[in-house]
Amino acid sequence: MIELSSGVVNILYADGTSAAFDAAELRLRLEKSCVASGMADPWIAGEIALSVEYALRSRRTDPEAGNVVHAADIDDCVVRILEETGYAAVARYFRNNAAASGDFGKLTPDRVEEFLCAKLQISPAGAAPLIRKVCDAMNALGAEKCSPRLVIELARHFREVSAHPRLQPLHPEKLPAVRPEPVPEQASPVAVRRTDSLFPSIRAEIDLTRLFADCRLAPPLTELSLMPFLAPCAEKLDAACAELRRNGAETLPLLLTFSGFQEFARKWLNCDYSGKPDSRVEFFSDFFRSLLREKPFKVFVR
C-alpha cells in the first residue's frame, strides 16, 4: 500500500540537520518497536503515524507556527500517546531508537555554504543568513578550519531560534486505543464510515474492481471515459460525509483508500502497477479529488 499526501513540514534534528517529515518512516519505526515489545499485530503504528501527520499538517495552517519542528518534540508526542494508551513497553523501544545524523572532518569558511546546503537540504539563497552567522561565529572563534560537528552545532543553535518551540501535543486521553473496524462487506463499491479508533476520522474506501466490473469500454481509459464511473462515486462519498458531519463528525479528517488498484491499472490503464508511487497513481488520485467537495486529508492506494 502506498500513501499520497501533500504539504511539507521540516524536521530539525539535534545535530542541526533537517529533512521533510516522512509518515511512512515514522510508521516503520513504530512497527519495529511494536514487534520488539512482543505485539503480534502492530496496528497502532499506522494510527499514531496518522495522528502525528495530521497534527503537523494542521500546524502548517498556523501562520505563527512556521514549518520546522524538532524531531525530539515528535518523539515526545509519540511516547506520550503510547504511555497514556497502555503501550509503555512500545514507548521504551521507540525512545531507544531515535533517529540521528552527523558528519565529521575539517571545514574552511568557503566550504560552509556547500556543506550546510547539502546537510540541511536548503538552497544557497535560503541558507545565506544562516551561513553568514556561522561564518561570523567561526571568525569570532579565530578558527580557520572547523569540524563539521561544530559547524552543525552552530547551525543548530542559529536555526533553533527560528523553529517553533514545541509541537502542539495530541491528547491521548481523548483518543481511545481501539482498533479501527474492518470495512463491512457490502455490494456497493463505495464504503464510508466513521471510526473512533486511535485516530478518529471518516474513512472511505472505493473498491475499483467492483466499480468497473460492468465497464464495457475499451482500455486504456481516459479522463472522459472515467467520468461516468467516478462522478457518481464522488457524489455518493460527499453525501455520506455530509451526513456524518451532521451527526457529530464535524471536525474529523477524511481518509480515502482505493482498493484493487493493481488489477484496475492492468486491466483498464494498460500498465503494470508495482505498488510504488508513479504518475498514473497521482493522475487517478488527483482526478478523483477534483470531483470531490470533501477533500481527503490523505489518500491510500492498495
Q: What topology, given as strand order, has the largest sheet?
A: 1-8-7-6-5
First-to-last CA distance: 4 Å
Number of helices: 11
Q: In this structure, how is the largest beta sheet organized?
A: 5 strands, mixed
Number of strands: 8
Summarize model confidence as the mean pLDDT.
Answer: 80
**Helix percent band:** 40-55%
Q: Beta fraction of the residues?
A: 5-15%
Give the gist of this structure.
With 302 residues, the protein is an alpha/beta fold.
3D architecture notes:
It is a single chain. The protein is α/β, with parallel strands linked by helices. It has two domains: 173 residues, no CATH class; 124 residues, no CATH class. The strands form two sheets. A five-stranded mixed β-sheet has the order 1-8-7-6-5. The termini are close together.
Defining traits:
three-stranded mixed beta sheet, 8 strands, 302 residues, 12% strand, alpha/beta, 11 helices
Which SSEs are present, and which pair or pack?
Layout: E1 2-4, E2 10-12, E3 18-20, H1 23-36, H2 44-59, E4 68-70, H3 71-84, H4 88-95, H5 109-120, H6 124-141, H7 148-160, E5 190-195, E6 201-207, H8 208-211, H9 223-246, E7 254-259, H10 261-268, H11 279-291, E8 298-301
Parallel strand pairs: 2-4, 6-7, 7-8
Antiparallel strand pairs: 1-8, 2-3, 5-6
